Amino acid sequence: MFNSLAGRSVIVTGASKGIGRGIALRFGRAGCKVLVVSRRLAEANAVAAEILAHGGTARGFAADVTRQPDMQAMAAAALDAHGAIDVLCANAGIFPAAKLDEMTEAQFDAVIGTNLKGTFLSVSACLPAMKARQFGRIVLTSSITGPFTGLPGWAHYGASKAGQLGFMRTAAVELATHGITVNAVLPGNIVTEGLADIGEAYVRAMTASVPMRRLGSVDDIANAALFFASEEAGYITGQSLVIDGGQILPESLVAFEL
Ligand code: NAP
Fold first, then answer.
1. Atom of ligand 1 at shortest distance to CA of 21?
2. Ligand 1, closest atom to CA 65?
């Protein structure tokens, strides 16, 4: 179904690890030319090397999504290396926990700056190249946290992730006549390298709250991103897809006992 993606030029932000790395590797396996972006060049290069080792095409690039010049340089690097920008996966995000009574203005700004402003800066940097070819697929990584659920310590994060969906809807309308779609994947709890630091008790509790009784994999998210990026999804825009094993569905804990 996704043969149409072969040869496409794809940018993935926040791709040095976690979900972004999974998305980059998945697009690499689909035959795309991938620009692997994170603030740390060595880590971005390591993921690009994984794609190359499997016969794909990739390059690492160091850029901070909170800085407009970095995002413009990122778009220029994709054009230089791969000749176009067909797909942008705006995935970079941070999630430092702080409850409201201790959350500082700086922490709030950092989360909004990376997750929401970073979405705007990465998307806007890629638009001239996409508009020039009247083709583009933009896939945002949002979350169930914010758009659907709340978790103590993550008010700033939830606001940023819900904000991404507000951004997406207007962007989708503005870009509809340019052949550019804008959609979002909303992961539930996904197994990433960072999960080990959070601890076994958290993982056990989270797993128990998922009707499928397993946490998600990075491939679960990457496959959805791949679908939104495909030719075949060309009539879908401004939509969000929850990928959470059913986590947001139970009406109460009783749902697990019936
Ligand atoms: P992660 O493992 O911590 O990886 C985050 C990535 O973002 C890293 O590659 C990091 O690389 C990069 N990054 C952070 N700040 C950046 C910046 N200012 N500029 C450029 N790159 C930056 O996170 P993850 O769990 O994979 O999460 C990825 C996305 O999925 C986030 O948007 C997150 O909100 C969302 N999400 C995750 C989950 C989950 O369960 N993991 C659930 C829902 C939503 P450098 O440090 O090298 O810059």
1. 9
2. 19
Q: Are 195 and 203 in contact (CB under 8 A)?
A: yes
What confidence tens digit (pLDDT) does each residue in 188-224 have?
999 998 787 878 898 999 999 999 999 999 999 999 9
Q: 14 is written with which tokens?
A: 């926040």
CATH number of 3-240: 3.40.50.720
Q: Which two tokens stand for residue 81?
A: 């290396």
For a ligand 1 pocket test, name from 26, 38, 142 the mutation site with the most ligand atoms within 8 angstroms of its C-beta: 38
d(CA 127, CA 130): 5
Q: How far apart are CA 164 and CA 199, in angstroms?
A: 28
202 is known as an active-site residue:
no
Q: What is the pTM of this model?
A: 0.98
Take residue 208 and report the two structure tokens written for it: 């128990």
pLDDT by residue (tens digit) across 232-253? 999 999 999 999 999 999 999 9
**40-92 pLDDT per residue, tens:** 999 999 999 999 999 999 999 999 999 999 999 999 999 999 999 999 999 99
| Ligand 1, residues at Cβ distance < 6 Å | 13-20, 38-40, 43, 64-66, 91-95, 114, 118, 141, 143, 187, 189-190, 192-194
Catalytic site residue from 148, 157, 167, 228: 157
Q: Is the pLDDT confidence value at 113 over 70?
A: yes
Ligand 1 atom with least separation from CA of 218: 26
